[in-house]
Amino acid sequence: MTDIMNAPDVKKALESSAPIESQPIRPAIAHAAQLARDAENAARTRQHGKGKRTARERLDLLFDTGSFQEIGRFSGGDINGDRAGCAVITGFGEVYGRKVAVYAQDFSVKGGTLGQAEGEKICHLMDMAMSIKVPVVALIDSGGARIQEGVAALTQYGRIFQKTCEASGFIPQISVILGPCAGGAVYCPALTDFIIMTRENSNMFVTGPDVVKAATGEAISMEALGGGYVHNATSGVAHYLGEDEADAIDYTRTVLAYLPSSSQSPAPRFAYSATRSDRDIAQRLGTIIPDNDRQPYDVLEVIRCIVDYGEFVQVQELYSPCAVVGFACIEGRPVGVVANQPNVLAGILDVESSEKIARFVRLCDAFNLPVITLVDTPGYKPGSDQEHAGIIRRGAKVIYAYANAQVPLITVILRKAFGGAYIVMGSKAIGADVNYAWPTSQIAVLGAQGAVNIIHRKDLQKAKERGQDVDALRSQLIEEYESTTVNANLSLETGQIDAMIDPEQTREAIAESLRLLANKKRTSRTGKHHGNQPL
């Protein structure tokens, strides 16, 4: 075969000193590129004046440098008519080297409103994300449905709702609210796994302040009606309050680092090396909890002594703080942590904390994260307000979440676990795999004082009638009840607790349990379509 490099035509071209001409750029392509540049310049002018970033600047914050690959750049636009594209940007990029899909609404184009072109782009992106099994992040900044397109715009919202439900529990979905999100549009983020808002500029409401005033006469600002703080601290709609856009997007990247790309993928693993300080940190666990079982302490200190490097990423930190949930790692393996917070209302369970815990456990179960439960609760919050708010229905959500979870479930009782709260907080009876208790822990139907007041009601009444020291008798009976009934020995004897461990052994015990349960498999126990969860 003749060497192609010696062919006369090729040899002549190589010997020629004339420069090789580059491929000519067609005028239409050059015009499109200029339109794109002009559109971004216009977006900067409009957004920066409001203290907000452009959609493309937000993408630069979200993705690893240079990894964003846009799809459908000019879809919905009109190049000949000098329109660079529609009001949403879609594409894929990398977060810590892992592929993630994104759609970012562009408020500089028709107020970021959603019409047919925008809906088509978003649905196409979600189909692709489900096909290649990667998370979806939505950067929301929109005036809602495009009024000019009428029912066609509403139809697109319906399609996005359907796609979001289809993707739920299959791929992680995170919504970052960086501007307005009103009307039916709020249900796009409401259906996702996480909603992240900023302290300023972001708001969500079904009906805005003007409609509220017209309908009810109430005058209220957008911030007070549906601002970032309101939805983080009061409604529980949002999961994190960013100080600004950069903080909100950084939290998004952090959450994605703990989650797998899909329910069919294992969670990521990280390198972990034990340090000299590990033993000292473990020893600290024995000093955190006070001897007085009524004295509060911060369960976050306990968590930070157990997890890798003391790093714990809270979820819904501002909502129902009597319960703590969030992500951490044990020997490089991501886990979900659920804990009662004795610093707030003694760690009691109420309607809000029940829903907070239930939703987080369901999230962990969907995406293959083991759940570590740290228990210190006196029970359910009493009162007519709780009963009328549906503590029966809403408290049952915790039961449903734990009973149906098939990821590794490891529970440690730190101090007290009474009544129904003991059962629902990851007890062995409800499906936990391994349960531990600290030596001073108390497990019973009721706390000692409450139990004595009920069991020995007649004895105390007779003592009062005889003129005896009722308080001294009550103290004696409480001491007897605690020694015979409230301690964890009965739970050990019946197999509800697998081992009594010293506080400094907690991290190693959890790590050993995770290694034991590393190959735990999901099983389908029935042929049902799905359960009917209390909602």
Automatic annotation (TrEMBL):
Residues 276-535 form the CoA carboxyltransferase C-terminal domain. Keywords: Ligase. It comes from the Bacteria. Its EC number is 6.4.1.3. GO terms for cellular component: acetyl-CoA carboxylase complex. GO terms for molecular function: acetyl-CoA carboxylase activity; propionyl-CoA carboxylase activity. It is an enzyme of class 6 (ligase). SUPFAM superfamilies: ClpP/crotonase (SSF52096). GO terms for biological process: fatty acid biosynthetic process. Residues 22-271 form the CoA carboxyltransferase N-terminal domain. This is Propionyl-CoA carboxylase beta chain. It comes from Bifidobacterium subtile.
